[in-house]
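Q&A FORM
Asked by: J.P.
Topic: structure of AAA+ ATPase domain-containing protein

PROVIDED:
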Amino acid sequence: MVSTAIPCSLLPFDPSAVSSSAVDAANSTFVRVSSKDKSYALILAYVATHLVSKDDHRSFEVRAGKKSYDSDSDNDDDDDDKTTSSIVVGFGLHRFTWQQHTLHCLRQSLGTPVGTREEAVRLENLVLMAPQLGNESILRAFVDAVVAASEATTDGFFSVYRWSHYEWCWNKVQSLQSRPMATVVLPALVKESIIDDVENFVTDECKAFYETHGIPYKRGYLFHGVPGSGKTSLIQALASHCNRHVCMLQISHPNLNDDYLQTIISRLPPRSILVLEDIDAAFTKDRKKKVEHSSLTFSGLLNALDGVGGHDGHLVVLTTNFRDQLDDALIRNGRVDVHVAFAHASPDQMADMFLAFYPRETRDRALAFADALVAALGPDRPLSTAALQHYFVTQRRSTADGAIANVDRVAIEIDARKKQAEEVEGEEEDGNEDDK
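REPLIED BY: S.T.
REPLY: Here is the structure written out as tokens.
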């Protein structure tokens, strides 16, 4: 019960919120956590999975969000349709355990929502409670441990984060099994140069060089080219190779403004690869906005990129399918250090992927497969590496001979997809005419 020994004005909560619980406010330690603190969402998720008893399992929220990467596919076009969900505790008082301590967490709303309709924002915070006075160190240690656990890397896995505009924090949405660099099908010289560049950048010697010369310790990459050509695969492999997290951000989000973007980037987890998806989606080549009602300015985007990382050694990857639509200032030296072009599958890449799926075959057999596939495709059917991977998946029960014999199916599927896309486009045009 709440004791009258402490004036209500000194309590960081409404006494009625804990009136029916075993919390003794007169002999408890309180720590407030702002909803804008990076630990906020992490604490909500932790408490939901560490409640003391069934009686404490009362109030929860299920949150759905975009699922960043599919570890089994490199089709850039499919990622937007995938979602993931997480469970966090809802509003009210929750009793939970951490190490050998029994603690309380009060999630409370502060006033009425600000804004209108779907854009309304609810102001809220958390109050963490530990029994007895002077136990602030326990609560701070708990918060530090939750944050450290979320930022830690695990051998054999890497984490994917997305910025939550609702919670104002980087939310971990996936933990994916590491992807070997050998599974990335790129021209050998291109892949080797990227690996060498990253490995050199993350050395202590390179960090000292940057700091000595007053250069922000960050490295920028532009991955540009056709969809499904390996951009996602390479980002996954780099994260695995360097033991880093991947943080995904769409700069075309209508809620972004200059200060907000700076805040988002300043809260990047340590040892991160920041991926700005579809960098061409926010501004035209002549710096005009593409997003209606967006408050983000082109200069604000440049300033945010210039400020990335500080001394944290972040890798920054900009992705686009349309390099020719980018303003030169966005990709100049210092903002983008390495440009990587992703093209349709070449004969060498076709052979490499054949050997990846049929490792017992010889290089000559792989080249024979590539020759057969090129002949089946003809000059007018470019093939992405994602489409080629899809073919091998469909042939997973076939022998290498079967995969070579069935290459005509690749051309047939390309033609079918093209026809379907043309039909959809025609239906959309007819609908637009009807609306006039």
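FOLLOW-UP: The CA atoms of residues 293 and 342 lie 32 Å apart.
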